[in-house]
């Protein structure tokens, strides 16, 4: 049975990197008919918060990454919050102590700090020097009785190497003498990340550990723990980092990093999902994948070794593509509150028509507000380039005047009746149709780019069209 997990520490929002890790795990589980488990690694009590926890759920839900076991979804391997598993962690630490694979350490933070500084002075890596490993049973007993704070450290093999066989990276060799006797249980009785992670992955029967390659250096420590317990190793797949365009690790400097910020900025979840799937995973040149296609095509083997670069232009391109595919009703639901906020209440049918006019022009949902201004407010400025090109011509006055007259008498005022007016006028004045449409567009919208002209004319209505043509004419003088 394939069982994978996403194991975030609830210390902040769900970031793009975390979401990508969650997605790869989810895709692998769905592709293999396995289980996707959400485990909250909340043992860092100072940094874990309830809001962050909620933000992670929210981010995952927005992307549609549902978990089969985890918070709010019962499973046979719970609890799924690490802080509710402390007894399990402590029991296993005790087991290692009893088997002579771990020891109590009573060194105070000040002493450890001194040791670290001394090592730095000797230009050595800061490693614990094993002072407490040498304590006699008698000394240990005394110190325990005196109640001074203690941690439990894991005994590392003094030499040799630990090999990580990684699905993405291949074989990665770590020299054991670069590691030290690391803490597994802290003085407050909480496990450290490496310890809790191994216990919970094993007890939850995780078959594949798929995570960011910033954790690769933790893996030899984890492997040594598996070996100390005599447990089988899961398979490891460390996925490459995500970088900004400047090749530095993706961070706040590069703009929004939290998934929910993307939702607020007007991205569709399917576009973000599609985009992050491609960060470090590929399937030929294909860029656009439905959720089902991703599930079908995802393999761990095709995760790339090299880091991925986050390119917001590409994400925008995908978002526009996905917006064009969604149903008008869904687009309207997303746009309506933004329009009402910007322009106040309007007739729903009118709002629907405005949204629909821009359906294939939006890159981000809030673009609807800036693009549709002239449907809600008078035109106060004209595009200067447009003025040169279309208002300052010999025929501009004639064009706008005649158009105004003809449209004023037009009944009914619909796209179908408007179109012939433009065409006949072009013939009458012996100009190209564009020489009617462009000046008219400039007069009605102030811009050179709008949805199809006849739609705009119909939607604005006879009265507004008349007033705006009039206003443009007066600006010609
Ligand atoms: N809690 C760790 C993190 O958020 C999980 C790492 C892992 O997947 O093992 O980075």
Automatic annotation (TrEMBL):
<dbReference type="Pfam" id="PF19269">
    <property type="entry name" value="Anticodon_2"/>
</dbReference>
<feature type="domain" description="Glutamyl/glutaminyl-tRNA synthetase class Ib catalytic">
    <location>
        <begin position="2"/>
        <end position="317"/>
    </location>
</feature>
<feature type="binding site">
    <location>
        <position position="252"/>
    </location>
    <ligand>
        <name>ATP</name>
    </ligand>
</feature>
<comment type="subunit">
    <text>Monomer.</text>
</comment>
<keyword id="KW-0030">Aminoacyl-tRNA synthetase</keyword>
<dbReference type="InterPro" id="IPR049940">
    <property type="entry name" value="GluQ/Sye"/>
</dbReference>
<dbReference type="InterPro" id="IPR045462">
    <property type="entry name" value="aa-tRNA-synth_I_cd-bd"/>
</dbReference>
<feature type="short sequence motif" description="'KMSKS' region">
    <location>
        <begin position="249"/>
        <end position="253"/>
    </location>
</feature>
<dbReference type="InterPro" id="IPR001412">
    <property type="entry name" value="aa-tRNA-synth_I_CS"/>
</dbReference>
<comment type="similarity">
    <text>Belongs to the class-I aminoacyl-tRNA synthetase family. Glutamate--tRNA ligase type 1 subfamily.</text>
</comment>
<dbReference type="InterPro" id="IPR008925">
    <property type="entry name" value="aa_tRNA-synth_I_cd-bd_sf"/>
</dbReference>
<dbReference type="InterPro" id="IPR020751">
    <property type="entry name" value="aa-tRNA-synth_I_codon-bd_sub2"/>
</dbReference>
<dbReference type="GO" id="GO:0004818">
    <property type="term" value="F:glutamate-tRNA ligase activity"/>
</dbReference>
<feature type="domain" description="Aminoacyl-tRNA synthetase class I anticodon-binding">
    <location>
        <begin position="332"/>
        <end position="473"/>
    </location>
</feature>
<dbReference type="InterPro" id="IPR020058">
    <property type="entry name" value="Glu/Gln-tRNA-synth_Ib_cat-dom"/>
</dbReference>
<dbReference type="GO" id="GO:0005829">
    <property type="term" value="C:cytosol"/>
</dbReference>
<dbReference type="InterPro" id="IPR000924">
    <property type="entry name" value="Glu/Gln-tRNA-synth"/>
</dbReference>
<comment type="function">
    <text>Catalyzes the attachment of glutamate to tRNA(Glu) in a two-step reaction: glutamate is first activated by ATP to form Glu-AMP and then transferred to the acceptor end of tRNA(Glu).</text>
</comment>
<dbReference type="InterPro" id="IPR033910">
    <property type="entry name" value="GluRS_core"/>
</dbReference>
<keyword id="KW-0547">Nucleotide-binding</keyword>
<dbReference type="InterPro" id="IPR014729">
    <property type="entry name" value="Rossmann-like_a/b/a_fold"/>
</dbReference>
<keyword id="KW-0648">Protein biosynthesis</keyword>
<dbReference type="InterPro" id="IPR004527">
    <property type="entry name" value="Glu-tRNA-ligase_bac/mito"/>
</dbReference>
<dbReference type="GO" id="GO:0008270">
    <property type="term" value="F:zinc ion binding"/>
</dbReference>
<dbReference type="GO" id="GO:0000049">
    <property type="term" value="F:tRNA binding"/>
</dbReference>
<keyword id="KW-0067">ATP-binding</keyword>
<feature type="short sequence motif" description="'HIGH' region">
    <location>
        <begin position="8"/>
        <end position="18"/>
    </location>
</feature>
<keyword id="KW-0963">Cytoplasm</keyword>
<dbReference type="Pfam" id="PF00749">
    <property type="entry name" value="tRNA-synt_1c"/>
</dbReference>
<dbReference type="GO" id="GO:0006424">
    <property type="term" value="P:glutamyl-tRNA aminoacylation"/>
</dbReference>
<keyword id="KW-0436">Ligase</keyword>
<dbReference type="GO" id="GO:0005524">
    <property type="term" value="F:ATP binding"/>
</dbReference>
<protein>
    <recommendedName>
        <fullName>Glutamate--tRNA ligase</fullName>
        <ecNumber>6.1.1.17</ecNumber>
    </recommendedName>
</protein>
